[in-house]
Amino acid sequence: MLRLIGLVVSIGFADSLNPSTIAPALFLATGNQARAQVTEFTAGVFGVYLLGGLAIALGPGQLLLDLIPHPGRHLSYVLEVVAGVAMLTASAFLWGYRKHLVQREPPEVRAEGKSSAILGATITAVELPTAFPYFAAIAAVVGSGQSVVGKVVALVIFNICFIAPLMAIIGTLTFAGPNAERVLTTGRRTLEAHWPAVLAILALAAGLFVTALGVTGLASLHHNDFGTAARRLRRFLKP
User: pLDDT 10s per residue in the chain (239 long)?
Assistant: First the structure.
């Protein structure tokens, strides 16, 4: 379970630098009742992302797993490799197209006539079908061999990591006082200028970590010198 938690935490933080959620939150942070608005928005994002992940992991994902007799640790390690490779692929894409992506306008926020919670839920529902890092984490969770409770806990932890930047905005509004707007405005400018490169680096780090977990796990199943070396390496990788 600790290895699974380390995996979802690493992917969750890498996936958290998402302009589709952070940019609207920063916009709401400069309006009336800013803290309440951002809190409601964060709740909408968290609720939809978590429910979507649970529906996939405990629905189609679990059904596919039930079709495989005795999946064991081998499948778990294979899915870790798949998750890691997916993160590395995303990292390469973000880095290769970083100059093009940074020129894109941030998501337009239209909050009139709807609550911030509905706005967060709507944005997240639209983004969910293309949330490839999340799918990578879900695949690892499904193949982890954990109980239903363990899988739910892992996905909750992932989503807490995913909304960490939004909680940081709430914290800034709570504790920064009169300087909150200036700090958040600076944060938005930094995000708009550098988010593809920063996200690529985070995805690279998470991808290398998760891939290493899966590769060393597969190697550790062999009773030879290579397997022994892999088991020793895993002692340093496992959280």
Answer: 777 788 888 888 888 878 888 888 888 887 778 888 899 999 999 999 999 989 888 877 666 555 544 455 667 777 778 878 888 888 888 788 777 766 665 555 555 545 788 888 988 898 887 777 888 888 878 877 788 898 899 999 999 999 999 999 999 888 877 777 777 777 767 766 776 787 788 778 888 887 887 787 777 766 666 566 656 665 655 54
Phi, psi for residue 31 in degrees, rounded to 5? -100, -165
Q: 101, 19 in Cβ contact below 8 A?
A: no
Contacts of 21 (CB under 8 A, 6+ apart): 45, 120, 123, 124, 127, 163, 165, 166
Give the residue extent of every domain in the chain. Answer: 2-237
What SS3 state is found at 17? coil
**106 dihedral zone (left: phi>0; alpha: psi -120 to 50; beta):** beta
- Give buried/exposed letters for 114-144 (b at 16+ CB in 10 A, else e): eebbebbbebbeebbeebebbbbbbbbbbbb
Pair of tokens at residue 212: 């290493």
Whether the model pTM is above 0.90: no
DSSP state of 222: S
Q: CA-to-CA distance for 170 and 45, rounded, in angstroms?
A: 14
